[in-house]
Amino acid sequence: MAITDWPEGERPREKLLKRGAASLSDAELLAIFLRTGVAGKSAVDVARELLTRFGNLSQLAAAGEPDFCQTKGMGRAKYAQLQAVLEMSRRSLREELQRGDALNSPSAVRDYLQLLLGTRQQEVFVVLFLDTQHRVIASEEMFHGTLTQTSVYPREVVKRALGHNAAAVILAHNHPSGVAEPSQSDRLLTDALRQALALVDVRVLDHFVVALGKTLSFAEQGLI
Question: CA 3 to CA 42: how far, in whole Å?
Fold first, then answer.
C-alpha cells in the first residue's frame, strides 16, 4: 500500500508536521528523506529495509557509496543527498559551538564530534580551538593515520593554537575499532600536549575519544 493511501495521521510527513520530528521512528524519518519508494514498496518499506541491512542510522550514515547503492532504488543521487544532510548537520552544530560556551554545551560538542568522526574508517585527530569565552574559533583535522605520541606533533598543535590566538583547546580523535576507551598511548599523548600548550598559556579542557555511537570524555573520567 502506498503511503498516500494511509490514514492521514499515520503518514510520516503529516505526522511530523502535527506532532514534531521527535515523534517519528527512525524508519519514518528516513522515509521522509527518501521521499518515494520503489515498485511494490513504500518509502517506509525501503527505509526499514535499509535499517535492517545496516543495523541503525549511524551505520547507515557510515556506509560507503558502493554499499549504500546496493539497495534497490538507492543510487548515487540519494547517496549524495545523504552526505549533504550529514554535512549540514555538522555545520549547524559547529555554528552553535561558535556562538556559545562549548563547556556549557557538552551535548552539542559530543554530537558534532560524533558526526565528524564517528563514521571515519581511519584514525583522525581533531583540535577545537577556543577563545577566552570558550567559543569555538576553528575546528581542524590535524593528523591522520595511526595516532601515537610520535605521530601527533605537539609543536604543530601549539603553532596552530598561537595562529588562532586560542585560549584553550578541546582535543578529539576516533577509534575505528568501535571501542571508545582511551589507550595508554592516548593518555601519554594527552599529557604531552597539555605540557606543550601550557608553555604558551593554552589550556586543554578535554580530550574526547569517539567511536561509532559512543563518545568518552577524559574530563568526565577524571583523566585530565
Answer: 6
Cβ neighbourhood burial of 176 (10 Å; 0-12, 13-18, 19+): middle
The secondary structure of residue 139, as a DSSP letter, is E
Mean pLDDT over residues 206-214, rounded? 91
Side chain identity at 129, as an amino acid letter?
A: F
Strand partners, 215: 210
Three-state DSSP at 179 gives: coil
Report residue 97 as a C-alpha cell. Answer: 559551538
Decide: 199 and 164 in contact? Cβ < 8 Å: no
- Encode pLDDT of 40-75 as tens digits: 788 888 888 888 888 888 778 878 888 888 888 888
**Is pLDDT at 144 greater than 50 in this prediction?**
yes
Residue closest to 189 by CA, chosen among 139, 142, 151 = 151
Q: Is the CA virtual torsion 80, 82, 86, 91 positive or negative? A: positive
pTM here? Answer: 0.70
- Please say whether the beta carbons of 60 and 49 come within 8 A: no
Report the DSSP beta bridge partners of residue 169: 129, 204
Compute CA distances 82 → 61, 90, 120, whole Å: 8, 13, 16
Residue type, position 62, single letter: A
